[in-house]
Amino acid sequence: MHPISTELLRAAYETATRFDDPLISYITTDQFSAVYPDRPDWAIGPFRRDDSLTFTQPGEWPDPTGIGWKDGFVFNPSLLVEGDTLHLFYRASPRKESMCSRIGHASYTAAGGWVDDPGNPIVYPTRDNEVLSVEDPKIYKRDDGRYVLFYNGIWDFEGTEENERYPSFGHPLEGIGCDIMVAVSDDLVHWEKRGVVVPYEITRLWVKGAVIPRNTKGEAVRIGGEYLMYLSEGCNGVRYVGRSDDLVTWRFEPQEYLDLGEWGGTLFEVACAVTGHDDSGDLVLDFFYQDAEGELAAGQALYSVDAPFTQRELHRGGSLAWGGLAEFGGELYFAQGWDAAEYSRELYFYKATEPSAGDGAGGADGAGTRAASGSGAADA
What range defines the domain where residue 237 resides? Predict the structure, then answer.
């Protein structure tokens, strides 16, 4: 692994400021979540934007790395509810979906509005496997009250020992590694990094997931006495599930849990695992995939909490709530920044609604649950 250095951090930042992928410009939240064709009763959503909770990052953060880092786009957040306070953990990048990201925290109350954490960035590159980026926070509250934050560490493995030791023939890579990292806190202010969650013998240098069943407050839910983690991208093309007693130390085993069946297509990444949103005892996985026609799409899969790997039904349409759904003020929300203008540093909140009369497969703009054509998962 290449040692982290100011030179490598600066090179990553300069590359990120030039990032421009035509596929990314087509990604819009409404294309995935605004309309659900043939919606079953168990599906969560569709969702409509609620401007009353719009978050705007108020100003530039200090740069602990000393490279002059600045951001222009905030997205892929995670939500946690504590009493009357809504906590937002979000990814900030120089450009939409670029690397060289940092992770920030903000909180909202009805009385005080949004307050950006004065300690931001709460996570920034300090380790060799974070030199290109730290991305996509997923926050969970443990049953003992402690907080556990997962994020992706991105690094360049070209010319490294790891590249030789852990080939990934089943999930070909292009010189960039992705690790699931974990940090812990007792107060949401002071964070202690604990390092890599999934060993390279399993990931083969690329893994995404850290999707743990949680309720609508952001509390991780034990299933069968343990916490579960769904891994869904990388791992040499093999699907794994993790088990843990403390959310920090994990053991993993191969486990199939999602079959697109007659839909065809390819799973990219599970976005979240939702339970406790009603009294059904259901567990819903929300996921991102490429359909049989090569279109990017969202879906949901239904399980029981008593059988979290036995898929009962599939539904075309999902939220792509990467950090999970949260109930606040009696409404069910997720947040995303994809539809904000470049450099506005805005995040929008989307509220679950009942489908209106006339909703159909095409939606108002004919997009339905599909986005732009493409051969990859972008960096959503």
Answer: 6-353
Contacts of 35 (CB under 8 A, 6+ apart): 46, 317, 355, 359, 360, 361, 362, 363, 364, 367, 368, 369
The verdict on residue 275 lying in a domain is yes
pTM tops 0.85: yes
Residue 370 lies inside a defined structural domain of this protein: no
Per-residue three-class SS string for 17-53:
HCCCCCCHHHCCHHHHHCCCCCCCCCCCCCEEEEEEE
Angstrom distance (rounded) from CA 234 to CA 176 = 12
- The two tokens of residue 126 are 């300090």
Mean per-residue pLDDT over the chain, rounded: 92
Q: Does 46 sit behind a cis peptide bond, omega within 30 degrees of 0 on the bond before it? A: yes
| CATH number of the domain encompassing residue 165 | 2.115.10.20
Domain annotation covers residue 247:
yes
In a domain, 281, yes or no: yes
Question: How many domains does the chain fold into?
Answer: 1
How far apart are the C-alpha atoms of 184 and 286, rounded to whole Å? 25
> pLDDT, tens digit, for every residue of 123-155?
999 999 999 999 999 999 999 999 999 999 999
Strands of 85-93's sheet, edge to edge? 73-82, 85-93, 102-109, 113-116
